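The instructor's notes for this session suggest beginning with a concrete chain rather than abstract definitions. Hand out the sequence below and ask the class to guess, before any prediction is shown, which regions might be ordered.
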Amino acid sequence: MNQPGTYPLQAEGPARHTDLRGLRALSEFTSGLAEEHDPEKLLERSLGTMIRLAGAQAGSVRVVTSDGAHMRLVAAQGLPPEAVVEEQLVPLDCGLCGAAVRDDAVRQSFDLEHCAEHTASDYFREIGAAVVVPLTHMGQVLGAYTLFFAEKRDTPEELGLLFRSISEHLGMALENARLLRENMRMTLVRERQLMANEVHDSLAQTMAYMKIRLAMMQEALDASEQARASKHAGEVQQALDGAYADLRELLSQFRNRMDPLGLVHALEELKTQFHDRTGIELAFDNRTTNLGLSVDEESQVFHVMQEALANVARHSGAKHARLIMELAGGEYRFTVEDDGLGFYAFGQPREGAEQHSHLRHHLGVNIMRERAQQLDGRIEISNLPQGGARVSLVFSAQRASSA
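After discussion, reveal the predicted structure:
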């Protein structure tokens, strides 16, 4: 049932086409939606558009709060300052705006006494009419625009239809912005967890190793066993050098975020920098024509390859390495191979590998596996028959194309 003085602007017959001016405004309006990722700036900019389009004197836009019981003022234009202060937060069922939100319908009214009383402002007693346009997405009301007119006049039905179309586009844009924020939040949490794991795998275990060796060195000093104390001191120094190198590598990884030009460009840049940093020759063999990965998928692949190459630099003793991208059998396969000592943990070491086996706790395999799980993929690790090691990230191309 309508409140006294309020009228729905619903089409009772076939919807008439808006005029060319309205269509141009709608086209101009919708073309800019994808360029604005801040929902409140989007609503404020859209408010000005709707005021100009309707020939209104003033306007405001509100969003429903997370508790679903109130509406919060996002922006206002043309309203007196005292009214803006009072309108910052209103109950969801407040006056004309509440009626439009409750019924999910564009509404107009020529009696704004309720607004005048709520804000203690005579401004609303001088207003001729008001129109409220709810913001909706998939049946859920997200907020409302209110437009105030100096004269008491009916709003043309076609303008009401145009407002409704604009509100639906805005509702979709707001929902997309919300989903983007949630995705960014989840990505941030995931990256922080992976960062913590990387620090644990590289630095924490080395520090625990040094702590044990320091205790043993102290015992040797207390027993006046100089030779044993010197041996443990050398082990601590070696571990400290390794920890320092690991820290520099971690800082380099954290700074080298995903290249905005895409995965292939990022890996080419990684190839260029790798030899300068490590002295190891790196070949890049791209056997794909079109990856078709999302931004998040490209980021996960990049960081797995970065970690695999970091392991080559830290532990392999290799002189040459190769990074291979290929698509075969419905699966993406990203591989790093080297001609180093191989993985002690995954097979029999080559001659001379025993002296490097204590470094193998730094492999970062868990980090790569966690990133692979984000792609519903797997990490394959093996020693090569001719010597060296291979690490591959494998995941379904069908999964990637539907992401």
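Then share the key points. Residues 6-179 form a domain with the Beta-Lactamase fold (CATH 3.30.450.40). Residues 157-222 form the longest helix (66 residues).
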